[in-house]
Fold:
Amino acid sequence: MNYRYIWKEIRHHRHRTLVNVLGIAVGIALFVSINAVSAAYQNAISLPFKNIGADIVVQRAEKRSLDAVQPPASMRGIRLPFSNQILSSQDMENLKTISGIDTMATSLLLWEFDQGGFKTIMGVDLTAPSLGPIKVKDWLAQGRFPEKTGEAVLEKHFAKFHQIKLGDTYRISGQSFTVVGLLEIKEGSQVASANIYLALADAQSLLVGSTRDINIAYLHMKDPAQIDKIKTEIAKILPGVTITSSDSFLELMGGMSQISGQFSLVVSLVALAGAIFLIIKTMIGNLVERSREIGILKAMGWTNSDVQKQLIGETFLQSIMGGFAGIVAGYLIAYLLGYLSIPIATPWELNLTPAFAKMAETSAKTIHLPVSFSAVLTAAALALSFFAGGLASYFMGRRMSKMKPADILRKL
Amino acid sequence: MNNADILMGTNLSKRFDNLEVVKDVSLTVKEGEFVSLVGKSGCGKTTLLSLLSGLEKPTKGKVILNNKDITGASEDELALFRRDHVGFIFQSFNLIPTLSAWENVALPLFPIKMTGEQRSRRAHDLLNQMEMGHRIEHLPGALSGGEKQRVAIARALINNPKIVFADEPTGNLDSVTGEAIMAILNELHKKKGMTMLMVTHAEELAASADRVIRMKDGEVIA
Structure:
């Protein structure tokens, strides 16, 4: 292989090189962008759970929501959400018997209805600092998170709407709380999105007749691959509870979410195969155009292997150029698509606000695709561009070896 | 002059479909000899040159070149044989348009393991001998016909061949340039003892050779 000759051929035949490089680049760009966006979608869907560090959320829905014959409870004052009835201490003891659960945290979610509307109140378990709605403390815009009873953190927009500032006293159902912090809810955080965050004991004291009640359990697995198995076990031990994981979001999503990992791989590989086919056709077309040159090389004493090495060198150089261009273009497309906001539908039991207040939480439900650079995807794309070059070289070699110098030179 | 046969073709025939282009031709070329193969266009002289140089395989007959029977050799064996023992000069020069003059000259050496500097030095020396020292870095597109043929002659000599096959070397040149090229070929033969087999349709060019073989309708007539 003569590098000088390779470089001169590539430089001299700019149009031909450009067509080949673009062919590879388009295929690789499709592969990279489809897979990067698909991975981003998967990340987006798992974001609500990732944000609270949980793999599984366990709740118990009000029986009336399942059995409409039962009359509705009063909607005034503090009440439990329909999807979040009390999980008994026995339920919690039963959960602890399941192996494979690494850590567990609990919370008490309440709704308060009054003449001014409604508010959502989250009682947070301060003893499990890395699991559950306590994770919202990472999003504090001002102040700190409650450290003891009598303190509250308010969601920033809620506080602004009600003209509440840091250090003010805020009353909930007759009890006073000092506002010690304001936080801003981040994208994809609907599982933990509330108006007010209190220590768990404070929330329990708001609920009449409650002492140590909780209504949401957050579980973190030792091995996330065991989620389905553990979900089945929970369903067996705690009949009637709702068990949700990031898969529950996927089930609700339509359109783009259908591009699961395997499907996107197939789509991108089909796109790449089409591109490779075009590249092979183009390069074999080039071979016919270059038959005179091949005839001269063979007449001058170049063996089939010598000519093939030269063509492989040219093809691989173009593949590298196309591969890099495709990777850059693919990520560029993916990052541009990342600016699009996508709606993430929330399973009703995880929706912390009443059904009639959907508008209030629109921002939390819409997120930007979290596109990120993947070394594995980049390496796979480069490997595929080499594979495309190798395949094109193979077919060119087969065609070229059938070319006889005398046949070619006779036609000149 | 050494009188050993360097090239021997025996009962050579070549058929393309139903057309027999070369018909039972036998000839020999001695080492250091300059032989002209002359005849009208289409008489089979270029095909005979291809058979004798190992570019083409005969339908019938045998070719012995530099004491080696090349008749049954594979394409790659023939390529290696050409690289080591044969030089070619074509009517249409057959230079690679993307390579400079010296790179075209060095082309047969590209697959051989040697340093770039060695290749370059040999190519430069030969181009200087062809009085092309001032055009070494030029692409073929920037050269005149005569200059292109000088580059092609240098390329034919780069591997120190036992024999040079020249197919109408002045066919694409005006008469003055053609004469200059013929002068170079004659000098190579006379001063360096180069064995040459030249195909031409021009009697006056053929006359400068040691021996003239005439062809008509695929057969040697004289």
Notes: Strands of chain B lie at 5-16, 19-30, 34-38, 60-65, 68-69, 86-89, 163-167, 195-200, 211-216, 219-220. Chain B has one domain: 32-45+54-59+72-220. Residues 32-45+54-59+72-220 of chain B form a domain with the Rossmann fold fold (CATH 3.40.50.300).
